[in-house]
Amino acid sequence: MGDVDLVVDRAVAERVFGDRLPLARRYAEHLVTSGVERGLIGPREAPRIWDRHVLNCAVVAELLPDGARLVDVGSGAGLPGIPLALARPDLQVALVEPLARRVDWLDEVIADLGLDVRVDRGRVEETAVRRRWEGADVVTARAVAPLARLAGWALPLLRTGGRLLAVKGASAPEEIARDAAAVRKLGGGDPEIVLCGHGVVDPATTVVVVERQRGTGRPVRRDKK
Predict the structure, then answer these.
(1) Residue 31 pLDDT more than 60?
(2) Which residues are annotated as a binding site?
(3) Which domain holds residue 82?
(4) Is a pLDDT exceeding 80 seen at residue 3?
(5) In sequence order, what are the residues at sequence separation of 6 or more whose Cβ sits closer than 8 angstroms to the Cβ of residue 110?
(6) pTM to 2 decimal places
């Protein structure tokens, strides 16, 4: 896989991906080649594709229950959905992405990797998309939207007790302080910060966790028959 192998500590990557490390390498190669060429990843991200992107997302797997039904919203280049599917083959993963060029790339990559992952072109706020994926155990998102807006999209997809896992950056505490009341109004619990991947990525991955506690107050509209 060429230069992409030079930027990953094999022992660390094996802890995360096990015998699926060759597939993870292949995914990383897609990111730094066609992913850059087609505008899904910035060219400056290529040298840090493992720590900043692939491993940074994959370590969120430690928060996922066995056999979870997971919906990755605004999936873009498949982050975090594809690294999670690679690290945890027990998961049922769907990637929801509105842009056709990104969906085409995701379909190509998933076919090449031989993954049992669904790709759905659409927006999660659309009724049809919600109807297809509601009842999920977990919704993931990375760099998609501010927390309040993201909760409005994600919570209706979750079963009661399901969790939104939003991969965030250093501004997560400020975002929680600003949006916690809105999240509660939408039916979520108090947002909390969990750090994932100690000893794997530095810094650890910051995840804002929100549990769906009740109905969102914005029920999915059922089309009349």
Answers:
(1) yes
(2) 74, 79, 124-125, 142
(3) 2-211
(4) no
(5) 78, 82, 117, 119
(6) 0.91
